[in-house]
């Protein structure tokens, strides 16, 4: 038996991608249409047989064990539970009868994109470049060199399955197996397309436009039906899933569909009250700060948060107020503050302990009940 690894020029532990790459290179060099040298056609066919064996995991395993990957197996090595089941019921029992279609649905794909808070709030459109499998432009998915077509398998006669006689403790029984020559397709491709190496699809980079809905958040997935990989032999495309990752904003923090921010103001403005202009995602908004405002108080601007992904409306913008105490005072400022403290009787304040959390009405009722 020929050394298929040597024919393809790969090591025995070569991956499927390495085997495929080696095959494509040799197929392009030895194809009769591009190489008229004597013996090139025989080598081309030999390379094809080597690839057919090593690209199939089951055949490769049989070949590596020294067996004939295209031979029939009896009760010797490799006869396991599956063969025993098939002895009674046949390989097609409960399964698909007839040849297997070459066309299969392509795989789904997942990519991730980053969006800023502005896009997450209002939505937008983004153009994405993706590497994916598309229908081969040369053979348009037929897998054959232009001008040729698949041929009916001369082993299974197009059925995709073959029957063999197996010996068991019950005697001789007839079993049905996928045809090893055509892999169950019922047809073979004698002249595979050079562009796609007989797969009916090639990888390429293409650009698609995606609409980002308003209200998306980190982890949101957008499904684009039919924008995934094209299947083998030009089969239907899978779906493309776009997962959103939202970038942090320098000013606003998102909690659900509400936005939070902190507004710092001087002590005098908090004591006297004022109007402050705040830049929001919708533009400038005026906030009325009432006299005597304390640190930790909040002002809520309704409907200025993130849009609800499911349903109408938007969340709120919650502004947390932080009062700043001056650290460095000149003589005049210190004099004025001391006069204010004297007028308010706060020159030597005694201080007051703030009530602990949970000291409201319900806590007092609970303590009163517990005391009885």
Biggest β-sheet description? 4 strands, mixed
Strands, total number: 15
Low-confidence stretches: 72-95, 359-366, 368-372
Overall mean confidence score, pLDDT: 83
- Helical content (DSSP H or I, runs of 4+): 10-25%
Order of helices and strands: HHHHHEHEEEEEEEEEEHEEEEHH
Name of the top-level CATH class of the largest domain: Mainly Beta
Radius of gyration: 38 Å
Number of domains: 3
- What is the CATH topology of the largest domain? HSP40/DNAj peptide-binding domain
Write out key terms for the chains shown.
single chain; 372 residues; alpha+beta; Helix Hairpins; HSP40/DNAj peptide-binding domain; 3 domains; four-stranded mixed β-sheet; three-stranded mixed β-sheet; 9 helices; 24% helix; rod-shaped; disordered C terminus
Tell me about this structure.
The protein is of the alpha+beta class and 372 residues long. It folds into 3 domains: 1-70, DnaJ domain (Helix Hairpins, Orthogonal Bundle), CATH 1.10.287; 82-247, HSP40/DNAj peptide-binding domain (Sandwich), CATH 2.60.260.20; 253-346, HSP40/DNAj peptide-binding domain (Sandwich). The chain is built from 9 helices and 15 strands. The chain has helices at residues 4-8, 16-30, 40-54, 57-64, 81-89, 117-122, 267-272, 331-343, 361-371; strands at 109-115, 124-135, 151-152, 161-168, 171-178, 187-188, 201-212, 221-224, 240-246, 253-255, 258-266, 274-280, 283-289, 298-301, 317-324. A 4-stranded mixed sheet has the order 10-11-15-14. Strands 1-9-8 form a 3-stranded mixed sheet. A hairpin with a 2-residue loop joins strand 4 (161-168) and strand 5 (171-178). The longest helix is centred in the N-terminal third of the chain and has 15 residues, at 16-30. It is rod-shaped and about 110 Å long. Residues 72-95, 359-366 and 368-372 have low confidence and may be disordered.
């Amino acid at each position: 038996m020929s050394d298929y690894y040597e024919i393809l020029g790969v090591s025995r532990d070569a991956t499927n991608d390495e085997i495929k790459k080696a095959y494509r290179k040799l197929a392009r060099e030895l194809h009769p249409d591009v190489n008229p040298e004597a013996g090139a056609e025989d080598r081309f066919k030999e390379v094809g047989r080597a690839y057919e064996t090593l690209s199939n995991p089951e055949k490769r395993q049989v070949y590596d064990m020294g067996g004939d990957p295209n031979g029939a197996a009896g009760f010797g090595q490799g006869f396991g539970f599956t063969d025993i089941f098939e002895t009674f019921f046949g390989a097609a029992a409960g399964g698909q009868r007839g040849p297997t279609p070459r066309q299969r649905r392509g795989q789904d794909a997942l990519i991730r994109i980053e969006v800023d808070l502005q896009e997450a709030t209002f939505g937008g459109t983004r153009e994405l470049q993706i590497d994916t499998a598309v229908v081969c432009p040369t053979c348009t998915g037929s897998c054959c060199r232009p001008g040729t077509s698949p041929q009916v398998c001369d082993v299974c006669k197009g059925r995709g399955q073959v029957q063999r006689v197996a010996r068991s403790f019950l005697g001789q029984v007839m079993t049905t197996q996928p045809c090893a020559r055509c892999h169950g397709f019922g047809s073979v491709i004698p002249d595979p397309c050079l562009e796609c190496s007989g797969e009916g699809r090639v990888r390429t980079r293409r650009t698609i436009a995606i609409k980002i809905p308003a209200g998306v958040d980190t982890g949101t997935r957008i499904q684009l039906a039919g924008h995934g990989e094209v299947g083998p032999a030009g089969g239907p495309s899978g779906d493309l899933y776009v997962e959103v990752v939202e970038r942090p904003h320098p000013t606003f923090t998102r909690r659900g569909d509400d936005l939070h921010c902190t507004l710092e103001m001087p002590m005098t403005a908090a004591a006297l009250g004022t109007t402050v202009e705040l830049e929001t995602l919708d533009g400038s908004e005026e906030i009325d700060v009432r006299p005597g405002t304390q640190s930790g108080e909040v002002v809520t601007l309704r409907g200025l948060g993130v849009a609800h992904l499911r349903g109408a409306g938007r969340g709120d913008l919650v502004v947390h107020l932080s009062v700043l105490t001056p650290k460095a005072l000149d003589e005049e400022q210190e004099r004025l503050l001391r006069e204010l403290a004297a007028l308010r009787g706060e020159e030597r304040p005694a201080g007051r302990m703030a009530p602990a959390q949970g000291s409201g009405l319900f806590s007092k009722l609970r303590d009163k009940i517990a005391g009885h």
